[in-house]
Amino acid sequence: MVDLTELMENEVFMAFASYTTIILSKMMFMSTATAFFRLTRKVFANPEDCAGFGKGENAKKYLRTDDKVERVRR
């Protein structure tokens, strides 16, 4: 089994660990940013999400797309 100190000295492993940390941080930030934009603009992708803001026909007005939300999501 590889010792932890040997693993930390491995240049390839450190590059992989750094890249993984950056990508996971970006994914967590982008999901939070997308949720923030969807909630503040009241724009939802499916009927289950907008059910908390209205019932029946009133909920359908929240079921739409918004350019700013889509830009954050992509």
UniProtKB/TrEMBL annotation:
Q: Where are the transmembrane segments?
A: 12-37
Key word Membrane present: yes
Primary place of residence? endoplasmic reticulum
Q: Which UniProt keywords apply?
A: Endoplasmic reticulum, Membrane, Transmembrane, Transmembrane helix
Superkingdom is Eukaryota
Secretion signal: which residues? Answer: none
What is the membrane topology noted in the UniProt record heading this document?
Multi-pass membrane protein
Q: What SUPFAM superfamilies would the database entry show?
A: MAPEG domain-like (SSF161084)
Question: Where does the record say this protein resides?
Answer: Endoplasmic reticulum membrane
Family assignment?
A: Belongs to the MAPEG family.
- Report the protein name in the record: Microsomal glutathione S-transferase 1 isoform X3
Name the source organism.
Acinonyx jubatus
